[in-house]
Structure formats: structure tokens, C-alpha cells
Recover the amino acids of this structure.
């Protein structure tokens, strides 16, 4: 059966982090039609060997060179069979149910090419998770300190949308690449990432 979701993870010297993430995903995937594909970018710390030994259910692609984020995800996507791709950082820790909710939201908003979740720091603090393209005015507010001084202002803090309720779906210009759902058909139609950009 074709999976709903292909989770793409690009690693580089991530042996300290990847075990916890894959253990979390292993639990989540029991209730989902999903697969995990890891591209290891020539890690020198045994990341690929750790994954192969401890998580044989993962599709592992061990690159001989460090391809970077763009080319690494492009390579992972060539192995993906899901309707959706989830780009996931190796230091991420998705909360229980977040993958199923992401699939449901992508199904609910068929015109959305990308979907992201709220990012939180290790201490639980909210991180900018949905952003707008910068304007000259935004740059002036950032350089003047007004954006930092008034983080709840729709005017001064427009760039990071800190004023917005992160629980509400919204149309935004861009999403950080740590946790991003992408329609596989759209990713393929665009030819993936431009590999001239390492990150």
C-alpha cells in the first residue's frame, strides 16, 4: 500500500540526536501509513552505522559526500512514495499526534503547497514558525529595535508574525525547514530544491 507520508531527514554528524527522533517516529508510525527516509551526508561520527544497526526499518541512503540540505532532501525524495513529504530536522521531536494532524490539515487545505507546525524550543518556548517575506519597512523596524520591543504588534512584528495565534491556520509566505509538509506532486513538479543553495 502506498504511504500517505514520506518523512525525509538529512543528517550530518547527528548520532547523538537521531536515536531519540527515530524512536519517537517508530511509535508514531504504528498508527500511520508512513515511511522514513534518512540521507546521511557523509557523517564522521557513525550516524549511518547507528541508524542501520538500531533502526533497520528506516530507508537509509549513505552519501559519500556532504550534499547539504537541498540536495540531501532531493535525494531522499527520489526514494519517497508518499502523497506528502515531511522535511524533518534530526534535532526535532514531533509531539504525539502532530504527524496525523499535519496530514489531515494538508487534506483539508488542498490549495496549500506547504504546511508547517508550531516550533518550540527545548524549554517549551515558542519559536517563529510562520513568517512573511521581508520588506524595507520590516528591516527598519528590526534594525531600530521596534520589532523586538513590540513583539505583539501587527505593524512592528509583521515579519515573524509573533502577534498571531499559532493554533490558527493562516496563509504565510514561508515556513522554516525544520518541520514542513510538502505535497509530493508539487515538489516533483518544481524539480525539488535548487541545489545551488547548500542550505
Amino acid at each position: 500500500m502506498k504511504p500517505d507520508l514520506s518523512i525525509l531527514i538529512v543528517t550530518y554528524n547527528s548520532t547523538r540526536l537521531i536515536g531519540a527522533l527515530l524512536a519517537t517516529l517508530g511509535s508514531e508510525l504504528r498508527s500511520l501509513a508512513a515511511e522514513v527516509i534518512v540521507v546521511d551526508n557523509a557523517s564522521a561520527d557513525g550516524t549511518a552505522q547507528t541508524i542501520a544497526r538500531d533502526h533497520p526499518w528506516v530507508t537509509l541512503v549513505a552519501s559519500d559526500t556532504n550534499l547539504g540540505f537541498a540536495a540531501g532532501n532531493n535525494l531522499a525524495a527520489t526514494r519517497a512514495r508518499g502523497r506528502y513529504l515531511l522535511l524533518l530536522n534530526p534535532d526535532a521531536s514531533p509531539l504525539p499526534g502532530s504527524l496525523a494532524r499535519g496530514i489531515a490539515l494538508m487534506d483539508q487545505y488542498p490549495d496549500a503547497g506547504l504546511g508547517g507546525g508550531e516550533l518550540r524550543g527545548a524549554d517549551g518556548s515558542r519559536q517563529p514558525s510562520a513568517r512573511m517575506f521581508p520588506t524595507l519597512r520590516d528591516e527598519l523596524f528590526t534594525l531600530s529595535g521596534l520589532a523586538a520591543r513590540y513583539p505583539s504588534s501587527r505593524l512592528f512584528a509583521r515579519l515573524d508574525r509573533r502577534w498571531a495565534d499559532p493554533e490558527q491556520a493562516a496563509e504565510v509566505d514561508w515556513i522554516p525547514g525544520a518541520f514542513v509538509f510538502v505535497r509530493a506532486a508539487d515538489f516533483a513538479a518544481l524539480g525539488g530544491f535548487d541545489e545551488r543553495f547548500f542550505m
